[in-house]
Design a protein that fits this description.
single chain, alpha+beta, three-stranded mixed beta sheet, 16 strands
Length: 530
């Protein structure tokens, strides 16, 4: 991309007093007590060279904070232009903040200047509030550690917190304890499914986990590893699964009557479970224990199959007829529907001399009733994934539409946070430089040359007040200026010293160069920290 920046190093430095008096308010030289101020360290555009741009530039004075035009409001077109710029950050191998010319592709200005960005609420610039709260709730649930008698660390997992105790899915084993823990390796949270007092004479099939690790599908809590440990004071077998924050089993939701029974939800549940079973069966595996205690729902009604692989680890797979167990898995989908609908008497039909049966009637379509009979009443000798999908018909498109809508929503929020992340890194660099007093370099390093300009820009962005002396906390003002700085805009602005006796006209591009040079100088300083 061509560089349109004018070679400003040819212009000789000029003092603030050389500016035309009609263009600035009270221009004068800095007082002897003021920090030594050399515009752009001799390399930037001098005041005399850019004085012609002063008329249209927004003027900043730290005391009055007024524009040269007398209007303290930021123009909506300027803000919108800044808000429309986005860039992709690239990191050097040393971890320093870097960028490249390719970033300019993501910094195009919006041509629509009619949108009053400064009228937007603060939430307009950040992730959607409902999504933020949902993610925050998941994080709180993940990092919450309940008091218990569990050891602090087991194998590569620490911060153990009990979840629940459920009936074990294998004969001869009474209970299965589930525990949430955090991994030392990657910092993520996992569920440890513990079988206590495991008989040492029974050799677990730990190799079965390797095949389960290949099943990567959103509706299955991924199987990670299995091991035997004595950390609990006995011989315990532990199978590690992916942790799904705030997901609750269908069994618990049925108990507290919080699971929906609308036809749309039931179709969604059937299709999600069918998708998961299809991937599992294609891999030559079976769930074995699909029921309301092993199916989990997220707060957004995402369905997950949990505790997979436990039966395969507990016993040799040679003892199982895989095709028969896979058929049982598909039939279990119907049993789950039966359990959900059995709670209401309106779905129970009875005939003289016949036991009552569950059959959805009022409020359910003929297609759903046919699916219910297909899964529960052996309408055909074999239940197949293809048969379920054939009966689902256009409902699959509704499920696909919902998935794409959620993807679009998340992508839109990610774009917002991607831009915000760049601005946070930019603010970090500014604050690393401005008003340093640690003496890492020259004691007055941050108050001279390019660094003094950065300090004035920081004041312009964050320390503005209105005509009545009240602090301006407009997010549009901050984000608009930081976006223009991040994009390296050639737009000009006027910065005034804190005593209002000197001013400097400079472009965002020049300020960006000053920040990059000063940050590079700071990070490559040879002096040790005091």
């Amino acid at each position: 991309m061509a560089d349109n920046t004018e070679d400003i190093s040819k212009h000789p430095p000029a003092s603030p007093a050389q500016l035309p008096e009609s263009r600035v308010e009270k221009p004068a030289k800095l007082r002897a007590s003021s920090p030594a101020f050399q515009p752009l360290a001799g390399k930037g555009r001098s005041i005399a060279a850019v004085g012609s741009h002063l008329k249209n530039a927004p003027v900043f004075t730290p005391q009055s904070r007024q524009h040269a035009s007398g209007n303290s409001n930021i123009r909506a077109s300027e803000i919108q232009a800044g808000l429309s710029r986005m860039a992709i950050d690239k990191h050097s191998t040393s971890g320093a903040f870097t960028s490249s010319a390719d970033d300019d592709l993501f910094m195009k200005r919006s041509q629509n200047s009619n949108h009053a960005a400064h009228m937007q609420p603060a939430g307009h610039f950040f992730v959607d509030e409902s999504l933020r709260r949902a993610l925050a709730s998941e994080m709180r649930a993940a990092f919450l550690v309940e008091d218990s008698e569990l050891p602090f660390q087991v194998h590569n997992y620490y911060a153990l917190s009990p979840l629940e105790i459920i009936d074990a899915p294998f004969p001869g084993i009474s209970k299965q304890q589930t525990i949430k823990a955090q991994s030392i390796s990657d910092g993520r949270h996992y569920v440890l499914s513990r079988i206590s007092d495991y008989q040492s004479g029974q050799k677990p099939e730990l190799g079965a986990v390797e095949k389960w690790q290949q099943v990567q599908i959103p509706n299955v809590a991924r199987v990670c590893e299995a091991f035997i440990t004595h950390a609990f004071g006995d011989n315990s077998l532990v199978v590690v699964h992916e942790y799904k924050p705030l997901a609750a089993s269908l069994k618990s939701k049925i108990s507290d009557n919080s699971v929906p029974t609308s036809e749309a939800f039931l179709w969604s549940l059937v299709l999600q479970l069918t998708s998961a079973l299809n991937a599992i069966h294609v891999a030559g595996l079976a769930v074995h224990t699909l029921d309301v205690s092993t199916v989990f729902l997220s707060p957004t009604n995402r369905a997950f199959i949990g505790y997979c692989g436990l039966v395969d680890v507990l016993a040799s797979r040679a003892n199982h007829n895989v095709q028969a167990v896979q058929q049982k898995d598909l039939h279990s989908i119907g049993q789950i529907l039966l359990r959900l609908l059995n709670r209401s008497s309106e779905h129970i039909a009875s005939a003289p001399g016949q036991p009552p049966v569950v059959m959805p009637e009022a409020g359910y379509s003929a297609e759903f009733r046919e699916l219910f009979r297909y899964l529960n009443y052996h309408m055909t000798p074999v239940i197949t994934v293809e048969g379920i999908l054939h009966l689902a018909g256009p409902r699959m498109l509704s499920e696909l539409d919902a998935a794409w809508n959620e993807t679009d929503m998340l992508a839109n929020n990610l774009r917002t946070e991607m831009a915000n992340g760049r601005l946070v890194r930019l603010m970090c660099k500014i604050n690393f430089i401005a008003e340093r007093t640690d003496g890492v370099v020259d004691p007055e390093w941050s108050e001279t040359g390019d660094r003094y300009l950065i300090k004035l820009f920081r004041d312009y962005v964050f320390h503005t007040v209105d005509d009545n002396g009240r602090p301006v906390t407009s997010m549009a003002h901050v984000i608009g200026n930081l976006n223009r700085l991040d994009a390296g805009s050639m737009e000009k602005l006027v910065l005034m010293s804190r005593d209002e006796k000197s001013c400097l006209v400079v472009s965002y591009s020049e300020i960006k160069r000053c920040i990059d040079d000063a940050y590079q100088e700071l990070t490559t300083s040879v002096r040790a920290w005091k």
